[in-house]
Amino acid sequence: PTHPTTISCLWFTSTHTRTMSSHQQALQSKIGSVEHYEQLSQQLLSMKSQATLLGEDIRKMKKNPDTSDPKKSPLLKEKIHALKQMKIDIDKVTKEWRRADPDKLELDSDEFVSFLARRFFVVKSFEIHDCPGGLYDFGPPACAIKSNLLNMWRNHFVLEENMLEVDCTSLTPSRVFEVSGHVARFTDYIVKDTKTGDAHRTDKLISQIFEDRLANPKTSSQDAAKYQQILGLLDGYNQDELTALIKEHNILSPLGNPLTDPVPFNLMFQTMIGPTGKSVGYMRPETAQGIFVNFKRLLEYNAGQMPFAAACIGQAFRNEISPKGGLLRVREFTLAEIEHFMHPEDDSIHPKWDTVKNISVPLFSREDQNAGKRARKITLEQAFTEGMIKNNTQAYFIGRVYQFMMEIGILSNAIRFRQHLSCEMAHYASDCWDCELLSSSGWVECVGLADRSAYDLTAHSNASGTELVAREVYNPPRQQEVVVVEANKKVFGPAFKRDAKRILEHIENLSDEDKLALSSQLQDNGEAKVTLEDGAEFAIPSKALTIEKRTETINGSNYVPSVIEPSFGIGRIIHCLLEQTYWVRPEDDPSDNQKIARSVLSLPAPIAPYKCVVMPVANSSEFVPYVQKVLSLLRNANISHRADTTSVAIGRRYARADDLGIPFAVTIDTECTVEHDAVTFRERDSCEQIIIPMSELVNVINDLVDKRTTWTDLKGKYPEQHQTASEKVGKKQ
C-alpha cells in the first residue's frame, strides 16, 4: 500500500476505502508529514554511518594478508555481503525518504506534462519550430481557467477593497526603469560552461546538484547535513558567497565541465522605440511602475482620499537565464499587482482587520529559516502583536491572499508565507513575504507581498520634478514652530545674480538646526558663509537674508505615501493548482478489464473551465431535441458547458470530461428524459448521480457553483440514480 505520509496520484490504499468528502481531505492526507520525513532522515544518516564504518573494516581486513581473501576469511565474506545488503537497504530508504519529502508534491512529472499537452492545457509556443524555451501557449481549457481565476481575483480584491484598476503599456522607456533601479539592480547571477558556453542560473544549478547529491546513497551523513543547511539559505547568497560555494563544493556544469565565476545578468528585455534607434526601451518586468507614475492622477480621481489601492493585470517579461519547470519559470507571463498607498507613519489598524486577524496562517519567518526550523501556523493577530509582521496592512493582505488561495482550491497544508532573508530583499523593499505553494518542484513563490515603503514614488518624484505626494489635512489646524527663510530680493538678487536661486534653495533645504546656526552667524558677524554641493562658497550679508523662528497655523502637510504591494504570478498559481488537483482514478479490481483508468482534475466549480458537460446516453436521433433543449437552457443562463454527442462509450466520455476538470455531467436517456423530462446529474469526484427535473437544472448548477448548496444537500433532495457507466470510470477514494 501507498505510504500514508506520501503524496500519490492514486487515490486509494486498498481495494475498497471510503469515498473522501472533498478533494482537499484526500490530497492533504497524502502530503508527507514532517515527523515521518525527519525520522527517515535520521534513519538514513544512521545507516550511512554504519555503512561507512563497515566499509572501513573491510578495507582494513583486505590490507591484512591473513584476512584479505574472502574465500579464506568467512568474516570478510560475511561483512562484504552485509555491506551489499546495507547499500540495497539505503537505496530503498532513500527512495522512501524522497517520496516522504513534505517540501515536494509527489507527482509523476512526465505523466503530468504529457497530460497537459494531450488535453491542450499548456504547450510550448511555436512547438513545430526549433525555438527558444520559456514561452508557452494556453489552450482552450487553460484560457477558461485563467479567465475564471482573474474574475475571482477581481471580485476578491478589486471589488471587495474598492480598488482602482488601470491598464498600462508593456513597452516602457528606459528612463522609467533607470529611475526605479531596475536597470542597475534587476539581476540574477549567471554562470557559463567554460567549454560549451551554456548559461545557467547559479543558485538553481547549485540547488539541483545538491539535491542530486542528497539523493545519492553514497553521500556521507556529514555532507548531507551541510547540503541541507546550504539549500535552506541559498536564496540569500551574494555573488562572492556563490563563487566560494562553487569552488568549495566542486560545482560543475551538467556536462561535467568547469564553470565561470558568477556575474550579474539583467533580466529585462531591451528594445528600441521608434525607427531611429535612439530611444531605448524595455519590456516591463512588472506592472507596478505604470501605477506609480500615474499616482497623481489616481489620487485626483479618488478625490484626494487616502489610503487607497490601485490594481493592474497585464503581461510582464523577464529574460530568464535558464527557463524550465513549465509555467514556473518563463519569459512572458501574466501578473496581477496591487499597490496600496498609505501614510508612512500610519500605524493604525486596517479597518477590516477583524475579518482576518483570527486566521491561522503558516508563517516562515527569517529567524526560523536561519535557525533551521520549519514554517509554523500562527494567527495573524499573534504574528502582528509579536512583531513577526510589523506592518498591519501587510498582515491584512497576507490574510486576504490566504483566503483567496483557499477559495480557488489550493490545499491548506500546501501553502506557506516565507519572509525574505535580509540579504535577498529586493532593492525597493523594506520587508517582504512570499506566498509559496507546494509543487512537484518544491515550494514555489506565487505571490510577493512587499512593503515597498516610499521608494518608488520618491524616486520618480525626484527624477521628474513632479510632486507625487498626498496631503494630510489637520482637523483642527495645528500651531507649529517653524524656521522661516526670507530673502530681501532687492539685495539678494543683485548680489548673487545667477547663483541667487540655487543659494536660496540650498539654505531652504537645510535642517532647522542648521538654519538657526546660520541665523546666529548673520546676527553675530554681519554675514554667514554658505558652501554649496559643488564646493562653491558664498558670503551672505545680514541685510540680504532673514532667518527666524515663528509660530504658524498649519492646516495640513504633504507626504510621500508608503506602499504595500501584493504581486500575483497568475501562471505559477495555475500550474500549482493543476498539480494539486490532479490525480488518476484507480482500478478497484485489477482483474476487471472494463475499468477505465483516467486522470482527473478536481478543480472547484468556480475555477473549472466548464461547469458541466451534456451527453446523451447513446448516439441516437431520439435524444437530439433533448440535448438541444438542455444546451439552450445553459446558454441562456450563461453557464459554460461542453456537449459530447460522439458515439464513444459513455464511460469514456465521462472520463474525458473528468480530465478537463468539468465538475458536473448532464446525461440524457430514455427513462429519465424522454419519459419524465428529467436528467441524470453526475458529480465528478464521487461519481455519484441523482435525477433532477430539467426545469430545475439551471438553478441547481448555479447554486452549486455559487456555493449556495452542496452535493450532500442535493442527495437528500433528489432521488439517486444507480451507477452504471459512471462506476466504470472509478470513484475517487
Task: List key phrases describing it.
28 strands; disordered N terminus; 26 helices; 5-stranded mixed sheet; globular; about 725 residues; alpha+beta
Entry summary:
By secondary structure, the chain is α+β, with helices and mostly antiparallel strands. The protein has a nine-stranded mixed β-sheet. A five-stranded mixed β-sheet has the order 25-24-26-27-28, sandwiched between helices. The chain has a three-stranded antiparallel β-sheet with strand order 4-9-8.
**Helical amount:** 25-40%
The separation of the N and C termini measures: 14 Å
Count of helical regions: 26
Approximate strand percentage:
15-25%
List the helices and strands and how they pair.
Blueprint: H1 23-28, H2 34-63, H3 74-99, H4 109-118, E1 122-124, E2 136-138, H5 140-159, E3 164-166, E4 171-173, H6 174-180, H7 182-185, E5 187-192, E6 199-201, H8 202-215, H9 221-233, H10 239-248, E7 263-266, E8 269-273, E9 279-283, H11 288-293, H12 295-301, E10 308-317, E11 332-342, E12 360-364, H13 366-370, E13 376-379, H14 380-385, H15 392-408, E14 415-419, E15 431-439, E16 442-453, H16 455-464, E17 470-487, H17 489-496, H18 500-508, H19 512-525, E18 527-531, E19 537-541, E20 545-559, E21 562-569, H20 570-581, E22 582-584, E23 599-601, E24 612-616, H21 624-636, E25 641-643, H22 650-658, E26 664-668, H23 670-676, E27 678-683, E28 689-693, H24 697-705, H25 711-717, H26 725-729
Parallel strand pairs: 3-10, 12-14, 24-25, 24-26
Antiparallel strand pairs: 1-2, 4-9, 5-6, 5-7, 8-9, 10-11, 11-21, 12-13, 14-15, 15-16, 16-21, 17-20, 18-19, 22-23, 26-27, 27-28
Helix pairs in contact: 2-3, 8-9
